[in-house]
Structures are given as C-alpha cells and as structure tokens.
Amino acid sequence: MTLIVLWFCGVSLAQSPIRANGTFEVLPQTTDVRVQLQHAAWHLVDGPVVELAGVPVDARRLAKWAATPSAEDVQDAVRHDVARAVDLDDFLLLLDDVIAQGFDSTVVLPAGRARSAGVLVHPTDVFRTASRTYVGRTVQTDRPTPQRWVPPAQDGDPLGVRWTTRFANPGTAGGQLEAIRSERPNSDLPERVASLAAQLEAQGAVVWVTSTARDPRRGYLLWGSFILSRADSEIGTGRVVTRLEKARQDWGLEVPIQWAHPDGWRATVRAATEMAETYDVVYATERGARSSNHYGGFAVDLVALGLPDSLVLVGPDGVQQHFDLSGSEHTRDLSLEPDVIRWVERHFRLRKLDSDYPHWTDTDR
Asked: Can you tell me the distance from the alpha carbon of 14 to that of 270, in angstroms, rounded to the nearest whole number?
C-alpha cells in the first residue's frame, strides 16, 4: 500500500488511515519493550518513517532506543531523544499496525493527532483519572496542509482547509505578542509570556506561541470544523450543520461559509476533518467558541517541549524556583507538568486550562 497525498486547489486526496486493533500481530507479545523496538527496527529497515510531532522516527532511531542501557528507563530515553511526551506502549501498538497494514511511505502524526490518539501523553492522562489510549481508534496518516500554502476562502465557499487562512493569526511569535498589545496596550501580558518563553528556550526547550488575540470568527470556524469532523451519519451531520448555522446567526457573526458540502454528508465530514487537522485542534467547545479568552487578547496558547531535567525559573515578581524533572514519570512538556504549571500560575499571573493542552489565561483583567 502506497501512501500518497496530492493537493488540487487545497483539497486533499487522503491516504489510508491506521486502524488500531490493540494487539501485537507482528511485534512479539512481550513486556520487554527493548525487544519490541528491535523487531520494529528490523521490519522498518526498508520501510516507512513515522513522523511523530515533526520528529522522524526511522529504523535507526528505533534501534537506538532498543539499545538503551538496562539501568535506564526506555520511555524516559525516548522522551529525551525526541523532546516529545511519547507514550511508548501506545506508540509500539501503532508501529505494529503500520507494519501489519503494509504502509510503505511516511506516516504523519502531527502533535494534535498523536495526542488525540494517545501516542503522545494527553491532558486527560495527567489531570483526570481517564487515560487516552490508542486502542480502538482510527488514525489519519496524511500530512495536513500547512496554512501558509493555502489561499484564503472566498465568500460562499464550502468548508475546507482554505477557511483556515481566513481571519488568520499572525505567523510569528512576535506578531502574536504584538496582537495582544494592539488589543490591550496597558497590559504587561506580552512581557510576562516573552520572559517565560525566553527562560525556557535558554535552558534548551523548544517553544512556540501558537495563538494570542483571536478573531471570534476564527474561533467559530475552529469549533465548527472540530464538531463537524466527529459526525458519523447523514442525520448527525445535518444536525451539526443546523447547530452551526443557528450559532452563526445568534452570535451575529459574518462568516460566509457553506457548512454543508455540495457532494453530500461524507464529503462534509471529510472536509471538516481536513479543516480541523489543519487547525491542529483536538479540543473545542461551544462555550469557548462563543466567549473565548482569546477574544480581546486575554489568553495565550503556549507550547514548550523538551524541558531540561533541572529547570530554573524566575517569575516577574523576582521569585526563583528549581524543578527536578529528571524522573521517568516526567514528560518535560510544560502543558503536562502540574508542579511547574501551578508555580507559573502564581508567579506569572496566569491560569492554565488543564483540559486544553496549550491554553493559558491572563489573571490580570
């Protein structure tokens, strides 16, 4: 099976998804993950690369993980190597499916998709008793279209990836912070966020500011694509479309999108999925779409990966704190480290929305 993605006018011809069956069909059924990783490396010597949240995982990398010294925790070694909060058990199940189902070209798992599938640690794994697992899922494998490649949609266009570049966010971290200043010229939120990001980067973390002040119309589109992508029947799709059209009218938004695709309900769900994947959204609510703290510049989506084992932060109030993140239980992902989050909340005057992976709200209103 060859995985190919072609794009014509912003519409994808999607490659086959992975169907997760939750059993090892190719890799040995053993508790020794080193053995499983070594077998995966053998099978994938001439096979595909799995692009995991932007990091290529190939046979050589798998063999490196398999060779982790016995005194070290393998999952911890993996997380250090790729600077991602990998759930190794679920990732091995995914690798088994990639091999068993005959994929022979790059399998792309952006961060949001991997987190939703349980291959990366999900906030529910950390902040709730429920665990996000890979078993029983269908995981898309195509590469979402980068927004910078897509011309904005025109009025009256049907839903799809072109709507992701309508009402777009600034394309740089500096532009994102400047958007806050435009909305709230007397706020020091940009300086607090910039200070936190600079300290994390100086200690080796990879940091992105992905959203700050947001146009409410973009929030509506983001939420709409998310809930419509989850429809699984013609009746259900129609109900969601009706709900979205009513919300647009009730909220007084001028968003000239055609939510029902002219090619039918399956095309509607497919286009919504492509749109949501391009937004990289894995969590959206009607409440957030209607009255998000992003509107007016009161929130920041901040991603910081690969935090050091020994992290030192200094708050705007001058208080310094050291965090030991060296244990194998740590993800070294800012959005998934409760002790770091609670300290940052107090000393940077922010509040973390635990259920929404990157979302921080300014407590200075």
From this structure: 9
